[in-house]
Amino acid sequence: MTTNFADYFLLQEGLTFLNHGSFGSCPKPVFQNYQDWQLRLENQPVAFLDQERDLITNLSKPREALAKEFNTSAQNLVRVTNATTGLNAIARSIALAEGDEILTTDHEYAAVENTWEFLVRKVGAKIVRAQVTLPLASEDVFFEDLVSQMSKRTKILLLSHITSPTALRFPIKRVIDEARKRGIITVIDGAHAPGLIDLDLDALGADFYVGNCHKWLLAPKGAGFLWAHPNWHQKLEPLVISHGWNVKDRKEDRTAFLDSFEIQGTQDPSAWLAVPAALEFRKTHNWAEVSKACNQRAQELAQRVAAFTKLPSLSTPEFCAPQMVAMPVPKTDPRKLKAFLLNERKVEIPVFSWQDQTIVRVSIAAYNSQKDADNLLAALQIYFADSTSNTR
């Protein structure tokens, strides 16, 4: 990367920000577009939010842009605040009964687990967590890990496309196909996937897919999408029943699915409306090459950390998320390590316990330099050298 992309972002000076995978950072031109939309809203709020005037046309453009990016129809996508919101709408729309099972893995995002746990407790259903064999190095082994846990009671298959705690890229296509053969509903949590990996939503063949635009797609916070197979459009219920739920004289290009999710009264959709600007920024700067360089830097850093810690990786590079690596470090109190990294070394990065391991998850974005990677490694070396000396 010859362009100094740090100049395009608004990150705090002096901070080593290695957590793009959680919330991302929005480039200045995209953020300006976002603020322009907000200004238009304040200039004429009634016209902006009136579905008979500007709103429908404005909201359709991001859907159309994302549909083109992800090889699907714009009629299959609706705006949601984030992936978790979309998953909540899906979960509330599927009738569960006592004895039903939701098959997932031991790598899922806590908020998503909470969503389904909340629902299964009400009806006496059950969550089955398949243990994924680590290191993840074989699609065949992953397939068997999941299929071996399928039963006649399995109603839903819930999978991350890219896992949050472990930054693994699950090979989900074959498992989705098997679930479909068995009549199992497939729900894919793609929170980290848009902008990080190529997506072909129609070819993937799931029943549902949710994603965030505020991570690797570079859009502002509050822009996500819910994709649903057309068979589900009439069955999905929005979390909020508002003006769009029972539209009279619906326009020819509109559906109940689109209206019930998009027409939600007084909401600021500016983050969603800035999605086309984010896509254009990526296109202008040849983002595939930028991502490739970032991924190489992430993998090199992971190798250096592993050489220092002597701990095995969670996967082979093939199954690791591009630009994002979860790195086991010697077991310690994650709160203390995180506080040390942030307060004493100015490094912002997720640190947490997972499966009785301490994990540091690094994200390498366009604005991250080799110096950022060096800063993290040096900080880890200092912390654990001090730990072995019983000073921490």
UniProtKB/TrEMBL annotation:
GO terms for molecular function: transaminase activity. InterPro entries: Aminotrans_V_dom, PyrdxlP-dep_Trfase, PyrdxlP-dep_Trfase_major, PyrdxlP-dep_Trfase_small. Residues 27-376 form the Aminotransferase class V domain. Keywords: Aminotransferase, Pyridoxal phosphate, Transferase. The keyword Transport does not apply. Signal peptide: none annotated. This is Aminotransferase class V. The lineage of its organism: Bacteria, Pseudomonadati, Pseudomonadota, Alphaproteobacteria, Hyphomicrobiales.
